[in-house]
From TrEMBL:
Alphabetically ordered keywords of this record: Oxidoreductase
Transcription keyword on record: no
Highest taxon, organism lineage: Archaea
GO cellular component terms attached to this protein's record: cytosol
Statement: the UniProt record of this protein carries the keyword Cell division: no
Species, as recorded: Marine Group I thaumarchaeote
Residues annotated as domain D-isomer specific 2-hydroxyacid dehydrogenase catalytic: 5-104
Protein name per the record: D-glycerate dehydrogenase
Matches recorded under InterPro entries: D-isomer_2-hydroxyacid_DH, D-isomer_2_OHA_DH_cat_dom
GO molecular function, one term: glyoxylate reductase (NADPH) activity
Lineage: Archaea, Nitrososphaerota, Marine Group I
Length: 104
């Protein structure tokens, strides 16, 4: 059985295609940012979360995540994620450093 990954917003088609090869994915298609009530429900069912800078992933959300192994944010920064608490719960956190280019 494939691990479950939840995306708080869609990604490019090529990225989704790669994810679908390995994981059972679900994509939030409603209001952005995802309402905390929906995130609280989804976080209990998943193994991985792909989020964005406007999604607050705090201690309360992490506490609900019984099977969560990884949180990945589609951003350079990660201050919207309680990384210290995630580490304490043995949840890995990924982000995209140095993805931006310098203006010329």
């Amino acid at each position: 059985m494939k691990k479950k990954v939840f995306l708080t917003r869609t990604l490019h088609d090529f990225a989704l295609k790669e994810l679908k090869k390995r994981y059972q994915i679900e994509i939030h298609s409603g209001k952005i940012p995802i309402p905390q009530t929906k995130l609280r429900t989804k976080i209990t069912e998943i193994d991985g979360l792909i989020c964005f800078p406007y999604d607050e992933i705090n201690k309360a959300i992490i506490d609900l995540a019984k099977n969560l192994k990884v949180i990945s944010t589609y951003s350079v920064g990660f201050d919207h994620i309680d990384t210290k608490y995630a580490k304490k719960k043995k949840i890995r956190v990924g982000y995209t450093p140095e993805v931006l280019t310098d203006a010329t």
